[in-house]
Fold this protein.
Amino acid sequence: MTLTAIHPASSTAARPVLATASPSVRSWHPVCPLDRLEPLWAEAALVAGQQVALVRLPSDEVLAVSHWDPYAHAPVMARGIVGSRGGRPTLASPLHKQVYDLGTGQCLTDPGLRLATFGVRVRDRIVEVRAA
């Protein structure tokens, strides 16, 4: 699936996901309609020049972490396995299976690893991510 960003001039127009601002700007960036994300499945998006892995939970909460796997040194986290551990949503790397807490980014199998996390909100059924 290719995610689209909502064109700022029209809520019905869509275009491919592109960097929308400099990575140093901390602002909200529209990424896609909530319905474009399958529950318990990760998708990659480019937000202000940063590759982000988005995960929609069954409750319609959306979490975002870095798409960059710090162990494998590759942009693959959106292809990871969504699960849970101790009631917390997790994402396992598709390459070496390190398991990360989606809320904190902390690796549960190797405490020395961490994924960057991003703020996410859903407004009018549009997923928005806060650039770091």
